[in-house]
Amino acid sequence: DDFAHTSINDIGLRPCPNKESGEMGFNVIVGGYFSIKRVMESIPMDIWIKAEDAARFCEAVLLYFRDNGSRGDRQKARLIWLIEDMGMEGFRQAISDKYDEMFPKKKGGAAIPAQPEPWAVAAGTNTPTQPHKKRDILGVHSQKQEGLSWVGINVPAGRILPDEAMALADIADKYSQGEIRLTVEQNVIFPNVNNTKVSELLQEPLFNIGYYFIPKSDKDFPLSRGLVSCTGSQFCGVALIETKNRAIELSKRLEEELKVDMPVRIHWTGCPNSCGQAQVADIGLMGGPARVEKEIDGKVKKVAVEGVNIFLGGKVGEDPFLGEVYKKGVPADYKYLIPVMKDILKEKFGAMEK
């Protein structure tokens, strides 16, 4: 499922059992990178580490990067540039040496070659298993611990206002021993809720005012549930367009007008820095220039307006893939954007007019 989006970060820890002992640990991938000039997925480091060593291993990587990375050049201040300068073999050895230096009692035992991921091929063969369907973490789900559930709450576009944050904290104190988990995809999870209290939690006023919602199935709110957005120009001086308010309103209108029988992950990002990770979404919208015809002083002229470049096909989890540009320079005004989004949803995701 890769809800942590390991494939696009500097360091990714992918859970995997040791093939000999069965002990759970992590295969390490490194070098994921989004920027104006370049985007790329993480690449395997060919290292497996024990879970107990994960924090120490990451500390060694970070300190080595601090001392040796191109931190003076903002365009190259990411791990992949150091890896490419050194080569993966050299980088891997340098990190191993750094780890042994920092943690001498663990010397020589911190990492072994990456372990085969058992879900990648069918047992005893080299044949890939059936594609894994990304699971849903929103709604009510039973935990491994008897008598407990977690409850996933959708927070449209990840925007939580101060009074709502206080209400969420009060709910956590009441139902989940004060614990809240915030997801990479900008939603909220209350873990360890006693099954006898789930119904009461669902009736909390915050979840019944028409903003936050708790889906009953993966078909509830198929566009809003997977909505991710950067801060946008409302609060960010780098963004080219407003994102959060527009993202929420667009998804709401599309859900009112279309029948969509599957969740569709829509990510908005205000500029090519891609803080909203448009390239990993089913549909990604990135702020950019656009032009529309407008009559000025009796003449029709093309004028600059807020626009988006649209990406399609991004994927996280099994076989991650960065989406590709489908259409550029679409005006962000609903008059222009809604018809384009409707066509995409109908053609690519089987949506139909209501």
Summarize it:
The chain has 354 residues and is an alpha+beta fold.
Question: What this model shows, in words?
Answer:
- The protein is an alpha+beta fold.
- Helices cover 25% and strands 26% of the residues.
- It contains 7 helices and 17 strands.
- The protein has helices at residues 54-68, 79-86, 88-102, 162-175, 198-202, 244-257, 334-349; strands spanning 11-17, 24-30, 33-34, 39-40, 43-50, 111-112, 139-142, 148-153, 181-182, 188-194, 228-229, 258-259, 266-269, 283-296, 299-312, 324-331, 352-353.
- The strands form 5 sheets. A 5-stranded mixed sheet has the order 11-13-14-15-16. Strands 1-2-5-6 form a 4-stranded antiparallel sheet.
- The longest helix is centred in the last third of the chain and has 16 residues, at 334-349.
- The radius of gyration is 23 Å and the shape is globular.
- The two termini are 31 Å apart.
Can you count the beta strands?
Answer: 17
Q: What do the pLDDT scores average to?
A: 90
Shape: globular
Estimated share of beta-strand residues: 25-35%
H and E order: EEEEEHHHEEEHEEHEHEEEEEHE
Helix content: 10-25%
Alpha-carbon distance between the two ends = 31 Å
- For this structure, the quaternary state is single chain
